């Protein structure tokens, strides 16, 4: 008799789509950046500030989303966030003032973004153990595909029909795709009478299996390891989100056309697919600590090159190296948390880590925009990012090595 396909792969496929659409749209903001600057004459700090506001809303809402996902599961959370995300881009087309930009992109799109990582990856972590790293990587490949395809599609729509029509088309498409994908999601295998990784079905789906003791949120949060991971996420998001928002305007500043600049950020998305798969496989073999160290080393190399990248071809070299680190970072955190703390309160812990990341990601682009407005150059801002990469590398090197398949570092008191 033919063995049915494990439903966990449906979870991965739906999460792939959710990641691709939401983060692809986030990257497309870099394409819209120049359009807003040209039409309204707003400063780069003002435009980047809306992205920072969106990240802050995403981060603080992610804590709530993670806790709710631990309790009620992903389907309704993702459906509601799809409505906010799609509506945000539909209203984006009617912008006329900066406060409207902060309302529709900072608030509505920020709420829509709040579930894309914490809910999808926490759910995947519950459906897989032995293949958790690779399953997470495949989900994050969706992000890479979105980063590759959505900015190019939005750029083409902008060129053909204007940026307002581009936002309407993308917003409507995103709403439909995200809401449909949400209906596939289920909290865990036990809710469907299955076991993790597709083991034999359980006779009583309500009876829990034998698991190792896992910490509650309070006891896990008392571990220094948890706070190292939070600080690491803040540092790396400051770097990654700054590059995401400012690399397109920087490319045009050094002489690239708008189409070429969009191709640079799309190249980052395409190359990041390799980074996600490579790091996902590495996590299953060598653990999250070593994978994090490798990501930081690659990030440092790419940012060191960016200090001297003053020609278009040099930006594509940067995209090739940086893209590997970019993809790896967005893959490594969820499996690493599950390795050290288990999955009982994974959503709450991951949501907290993402909140710290959003704070760093909010400060980075806003500060870079302010530096550019004051100096007319990104040189100082990119130099600070290089320093942050060094600080992050030192930080994650303090993580303890894994002992066994998962080291639970705190237990319920």
List the helices and strands and how they pair.
Layout: H1 8-40, H2 44-72, H3 75-92, H4 98-113, H5 118-127, H6 132-161, H7 163-182, H8 217-221, H9 224-253, H10 258-286, H11 288-306, H12 312-341, H13 346-375, H14 379-396
Helix pairs in contact: 1-2, 1-5, 1-6, 1-7, 1-9, 2-4, 2-5, 2-13, 3-4, 3-7, 5-6, 5-13, 6-7, 6-10, 6-12, 9-10, 9-12, 9-13, 9-14, 10-11, 10-12, 11-12, 11-14
Report helical residue fraction: over 70%
CATH topology: Growth Hormone, Chain: A
User: SSE order, as H and E?
Assistant: HHHHHHHHHHHHHH
Please compute the radius of gyration using only Cα atoms.
Answer: 20 Å
Q: What's the total number of strands?
A: 0
Query: Terminal Cα separation, in Å?
Result: 47 Å
Q: Please indicate the count of domains.
A: 1
List the defining traits of the structure above.
0% strand, 413 residues, mainly alpha, Growth Hormone, Chain: A, disordered C terminus
Structure overview:
- With 413 residues, this protein is an all-alpha fold.
- It has a single domain, classed as MFS general substrate transporter like domains (Growth Hormone, Chain: A, Up-down Bundle).
- Helix content is 77%, strand content 0%.
- Helix 1 packs across helix 9 and helix 11 (288-306) runs antiparallel to helix 14.
- The longest helix has 33 residues, at 8-40.
- Mean pLDDT is 84; it is low at 200-213 and 404-413.
Summary, kept brief:
This protein has 413 residues and is mainly α. It has helices at 8-40, 44-72, 75-92, 98-113, 118-127, 132-161, 163-182, 217-221, 224-253, 258-286, 288-306, 312-341, 346-375, 379-396.
């Amino acid at each position: 008799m033919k063995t049915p396909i494990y439903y966990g792969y449906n979870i991965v496929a739906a999460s792939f789509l959710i990641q691709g659409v939401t983060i692809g749209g986030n990257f497309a903001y870099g394409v819209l950046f120049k359009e807003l600057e040209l039409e309204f004459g707003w400063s780069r700090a003002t435009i980047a500030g809306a992205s920072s506001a969106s990240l802050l809303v995403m981060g603080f809402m992610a804590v709530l989303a993670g806790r709710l996902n631990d309790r009620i599961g992903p389907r309704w959370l993702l459906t509601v966030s799809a409505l906010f995300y799609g509506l945000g881009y539909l209203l984006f087309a009617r912008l006329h003032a900066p406060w409207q930009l902060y309302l529709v992109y900072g608030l509505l799109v920020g709420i829509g973004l709040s579930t894309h990582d914490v809910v999808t990856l926490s759910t995947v972590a519950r459906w897989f153990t032995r293949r958790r790293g690779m399953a997470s990587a495949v989900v994050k490949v969706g992000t890479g595909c979105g980063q590759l395809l959505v900015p190019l599609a939005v750029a083409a729509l902008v060129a053909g029909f204007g940026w307002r029509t581009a936002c309407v088309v993308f917003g409507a498409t995103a709403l439909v795709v995200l809401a449909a994908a949400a209906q596939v999601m289920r909290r865990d295998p036990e809710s469907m009478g299955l076991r993790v990784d597709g083991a034999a079905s359980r006779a009583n789906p309500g009876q829990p299996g034998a698991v190792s003791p896992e910490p509650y949120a309070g006891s896990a949060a008392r571990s220094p390891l948890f706070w190292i991971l939070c600080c690491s996420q803040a540092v790396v998001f400051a770097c990654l989100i700054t590059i995401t928002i400012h690399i397109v305007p920087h490319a045009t500043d050094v002489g690239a056309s708008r189409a070429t600049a969009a191709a640079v950020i799309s190249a980052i998305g395409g190359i990041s697919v390799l980074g996600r798969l490579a790091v996902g496989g590495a996590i299953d073999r060598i653990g999250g600590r070593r994978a994090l160290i490798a990501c930081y080393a690659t990030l440092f190399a790419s940012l060191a090159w960016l200090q001297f990248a003053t020609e278009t071809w040099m930006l594509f070299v940067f995209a090739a190296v940086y893209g590997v680190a970019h993809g790896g970072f967005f893959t490594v955190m969820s499996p690493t948390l599950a390795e050290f703390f288990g999955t009982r309160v994974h959503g709450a812990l991951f949501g907290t880590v993402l909140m710290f990341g959003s704070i760093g990601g909010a400060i980075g682009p806003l500060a870079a925009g302010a530096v550019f407005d004051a100096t007319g150059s990104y040189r100082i801002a990119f130099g600070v990012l290089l320093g942050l990469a060094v600080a992050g590398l030192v930080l994650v090197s303090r993580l303890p090595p894994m002992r066994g398949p998962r080291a639970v570092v705190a237990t319920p008191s």
